Amino acid sequence: MSSLPVPQHSPDAEHRFFVFDAMDGDHYYFKSAAERDQYAEYMIGNYMDDGWDESVEQVMAGELTHLARQTNRVERPPAEELDAEGCDREGRHWRQGWAYYCDYELLPLVAPVEAARPDAGEAVTRQLASAATQRYALHCYTEALAQQTRAVIAGGIDVNTARRLRGAWETALLQRLQAPLASLEKVAPAGEVPA
């Protein structure tokens, strides 16, 4: 029997395949569907004693496509920029101990391997150009940039290659962000659209 894959306890773009264990109420994340399925088979076997524990029917497996992520983060301003009531220039109140304000949005996971390879520039550029929404394009860019930075630190990509790729990605991102503005100008007002 081959060795059991080691799960990760939190998801990311690289560990997007999961299995849920009803016995302990936890999710386990893997790099591939094959690893997930192998672990699920092992897990299901744990439900057998003298007979089957009926909660085995609550074991689930799948693939993540989106995660709730922090967006629109605003760092706490220095104390000298807060008024006597603890408000900043925009009127936002900062309670004692609050380090930041943010929102959370459900955002798609970005393929992890694209930005970590020196030859991945075109794939990321295509991903940015074809992004369905501006928000998704921006998310893809920040994820790719973070992966690329880790690759530079690890020595997988040289700095000059990283700069070249970043320039191409920024150009693609700007084109994607500007594209909807141009198309909106061509849309006729609702009253002028023929029935």
Report on this structure.
It contains four helices and five strands, in the order ββαβββααα. It is an alpha+beta fold. The protein has three domains: 17-63, no CATH class; 66-108, no CATH class; 121-183. α2 (121-129) packs antiparallel against α3 (134-154), α2 (121-129) runs parallel beside α4 and α3 (134-154) runs antiparallel to α4 (159-185). The radius of gyration is 23 Å and the shape is extended. The N and C termini lie far apart (67 Å). The relative contact order is 0.10.
Rg over alpha carbons = 23 Å
Low-confidence stretches: 181-195
Q: Approximately how much beta-strand content do the residues carry?
A: 15-25%
Spatial strand order of the main sheet: 2-1-3
Secondary-structure element series: EEHEEEHHH
Helix content: 25-40%
Overall residue-averaged pLDDT value: 81
Q: Which structural class is indicated by helix and strand composition?
A: alpha+beta
DSSP E strands, number: 5
Helical segment tally? 4
How many structural domains can be distinguished in the coordinates? Answer: 3
List the helices and strands and how they pair.
Elements (H helix, E strand, L loop, with lengths): L16 E5 L4 E5 L2 H13 L14 E4 L2 E10 L24 E9 L12 H9 L4 H21 L4 H27 L10
Antiparallel strand pairs: 1-2, 1-3, 4-5
Helix pairs in contact: 2-3, 2-4, 3-4
